Amino acid sequence: MKHIVAIHSAKGGVGKSTITLNLAVAAAQAGARVGLMDVDIYGPSQALMAGTDARPTYVAEGKKQVFPIEAHGIKFISMGNLTGQKVPLIWRGAMVHGVIHQFCNEVVWGELDYLFLDMPPGTGDAILTIGQSISLSGAVVVTTPQDLSVTDTRRGLQAFQQLGIPVLGILENMSYFVCDGCDDRVQLFGSQGGAQLAQDLGLPLLGQIPVEGDVCDAGDAGNPLLLRQPDAPAAKAIRAAAETVLQALAEQGPIAAFDFTWNSDLFAARQAQPPQEVGGQGLPVSAVWQVSSDELGIKWAKDGSISVLPVRKLRQSCPCAVCVDEYTGEKKLLDDQVPQDISLAKVHSVGRYALALHFSDGHDSGIFRFDRLRALAREREASLRT
């Protein structure tokens, strides 16, 4: 899977799901292999808009596997295909997180160029769960021009910034209505709010989508706008936005630059230099590798310096909510609770901002941001000098 893109809106009702489906269709029309994961668990829309109530194939024997549904040239999965459109989901957060975890880990997508995520609206903990569970290439943020939507969108953008997830751009939906009689543009929901926000934050404005009845009709009919009315102004605007997004993804390169299984056997000699380097992908590091059975090596892209971090120190410094109180910041994991002989099982990138470390004691929820790893390296270097 080359790229995973989150489509997000800070408020519901701004057309996020419609945009997600049509961006996916546009990518498929360009010849890409495309999937769509509807992680808007409480308000799944993709089953209706894709025009199918088919259930995904489920294999329970051995490793659990779910095979997505195919429609309109894309693979997709949605809670709407699992529960039906008329069944409300009155679930606690832990159940929602469980479904998101299953969608992320048990769906067999096959080879994909792009996986689009129809995200839940708002800035709840579902964003945190997804941001820490999936290596996102970036996010497209959908808003309407009105001040209320733009204000909430600004908060949503801050959430992605805190997670270190690149924002590919802002897409302003429902920007204007073209009068049938005089061709004048009528701004029903304010003027240029999304455009001004993009300018203020230095982000690309991916497009301004007009209000059209065809958009609603296509969604209700289960036939995406880009297929039903490919020459409609809204369809052309979405297609142009998709081209911009795909170009940006092509320029930044594929996700998951680092992904390797740890060799728990003792090395005859420490591997002080990286076996290979990854460059030109916008990463703050150019190499991550196993130095020895209990040491992780990182080469920093900016200055070419190398840091070697003991695995036990990393486990003691895990920043996840199990190990650190998320409200007070106080450590819950005691240093002497970590085994002396702890090692790693697996290491992989999380987007372009962090590493996920799977430890030999079974702990695998720690997402280590690169800036945090650099700080730990500097602390260790300072302690070695004293």
What report would you give on this structure?
The protein is α/β, with parallel strands linked by helices and 386 residues long. 33% of the residues lie in helices and 23% in strands. It comes from Sulfidibacter corallicola.
Share of residues in helices:
25-40%
Form type: globular
Strand element count: 19
* CATH topology value of the largest domain: Rossmann fold
Report the top-level CATH class of the largest domain: Alpha Beta
CATH architecture of the largest domain: 3-Layer(aba) Sandwich
Rg (CA only): 23 Å
Features:
Rossmann fold, 19 strands, 4 iron, 4 sulfur cluster binding, four-stranded antiparallel sheet, NUBPL-like, NE0471 N-terminal domain-like, Iron-sulfur cluster carrier protein, ATP binding, alpha/beta, nucleotide-binding, 33% helix
